[in-house]
Design goal:
about 0% strand, 11 helices
Length: about 200
């Protein structure tokens, strides 16, 4: 899952949101330097990632993308699932997605002092260019793909990934539709256990 999904699966809890969003930038024992409530968000993020990696629908998605994306198929799938979530009428419309994005940025502002340096940069661009609201548009998916290629060691260009995503759009949407209710239920129960 990518940024929109992790924000969405924080269930409106600011501490959980902060941890969920910075989790990929917190390495090793650095987690213990953070408030316990933020640590819980990091643990939730990692549990969601593990659940995602083992879900059959997600495995199917990564197979559809493998010829174009290789070992990075999971990373591209995360972006694609954010696209489908942004367009999911069960959870968002254009107005509610924009409102959710602004509330997320506002909530995260209060946690700047715990942001790892790398996430400080990411958050600056995320807020400035409104990544969370932008996932519904193909132009932003294309930009996200290009960003992955830019950071990847074993990939040379992003056009093939985008074409593969468009070719398998309906199949990928089906995978998302099977996956999201399961990850939502998992995250909700996991968070409930953490709060006990």
């Amino acid at each position: 899952m990518n940024y929109l999904a992790h924000a969405f699966l924080s269930f409106g809890e600011p501490d959980i949101l902060a941890g969920n969003m910075i989790a990929d930038f917190v390495k090793g024992k650095k987690i213990f330097d953070l408030p316990k409530e933020v640590q819980a968000g990091i643990r939730l993020h990692r549990a969601i990632d593990e659940f995602t990696d083992h879900h059959e629908a997600n495995r199917r998605s990564t197979k559809l993308l493998y010829s174009a994306c290789g070992r990075y198929s999971g990373v591209f799938t995360d972006v694609i699932y954010d696209h489908f979530l942004a367009l999911d009428k069960h959870y968002f419309n254009q107005v509610s997605l924009a409102s959710f994005a602004q509330k997320t940025y506002h909530a995260l502002e209060a946690y700047r002092q715990v942001f790892p340096a790398r996430f400080q940069q990411v958050f600056y661009y995320m807020e400035k260019y409104d990544w969370l609201s932008g996932y519904g548009e193909d132009i932003n998916i294309k930009r996200s793909f290009a960003g992955i290629y830019h950071r990847a060691k074993y990939l040379s260009e992003s056009e093939e990934a985008f074409l593969t995503y468009k070719k398998h759009y309906d199949d990928l949407l089906e995978c998302y539709s099977l996956f999201l209710p399961d990850v939502y239920d998992f995250a909700e129960k996991y968070l409930h256990r953490l709060s006990k």
